[in-house]
Amino acid sequence: MRHLMSPLDFNTEELEQLFQLANRIEANPEAYSHACDGKKLATCFYEPSTRTRLSFEAAMLNLGGSVLGFADQANSSAAKGESVADTIRVISCYADICAMRHPKEGAPMVASMNSQIPVINAGDGGHQHPTQTLTDLLTIRSLKGTLGGLVIGLCGDLKFGRTVHSLINALVRYPDISFILISPEELRLPDYIREDVLKANHVPYKEVVRLEDVMSELDLLYMTRVQKERFFNEEDYVRMKDFYILDKKKMTLAGPDMLVLHPLPRVNEIAVEVDSDPRAVYFKQAQYGVYARMALILTLLNISVD
Hints:
- The protein is of the alpha/beta class.
- 35% of the residues lie in helices and 14% in strands.
- It contains ten helices and nine strands.
- The chain has helices at residues 12-27, 51-62, 84-91, 107-113, 130-144, 162-171, 191-199, 234-240, 248-251, 282-300, and strands at residues 40-45, 66-70, 97-102, 119-124, 151-155, 178-182, 205-208, 220-223, 259-261.
- Strands 7-6-5-8-9 form a five-stranded parallel beta sheet, with no helix packed on it. The chain has a four-stranded parallel beta sheet with strand order 2-1-3-4, with helices on both faces.
- The longest helix has 19 residues, at 282-300.
């Protein structure tokens, strides 16, 4: 039995197999529409989510399986004080695979250690969000044709953004990758990622404050929102939330093949006017999230389709 706690749980060869499967699903979804007949996915979401929870549910339903679970810990026995370990022991009796989101770092890991079924980390605090990373990698690979040789701009909340942290960890394994880290001083990338991931792997990077200064250098711009839920006080959030807004004027500074990704939800960091730009692929990215999760479910359940 295998779990997914981190993007690094799959090596690059295994990721390639996963992405090839996702692309086959994209090309011929009908061939996989009964692959999980009789299988059940439990979605255990201890904090709010739209895309991640619904994309997991869509993925399982697309595969012919069924879904059960909860979307808020207030509607679960956690509200009565039940531990994550006990919850997953019970869910192991009801479902074949579980996707868990939790505000506490490491909670899905605790679940995996007490589970009789595969557990997928669907986000744990500001720590990891591996299925978003699989989605991001699949999007880049599908639209750029490669995961190497790219200059990637990461913009916005680089301090608390778990999607950014996971993506950096995953991408440093590919050749000729470099990063431009675009953030205000208060939301810079944590030291441990800068030292233990970028510098330790000899990956080139630079840190800037102004997005306009580097748009022309980028193959890919990964925008993030400033996350209100990660701030300890309202004043700091209000001061930071409008620091970056990508609009049509800034897009004129970018190359014709530069892609804009965003894990969503968007607040106001990307102006609606950018949506019609063919380089804006964040809604395609959401669709790739379903294919990535379909491929992951099949892989963890050891289900193959001839």
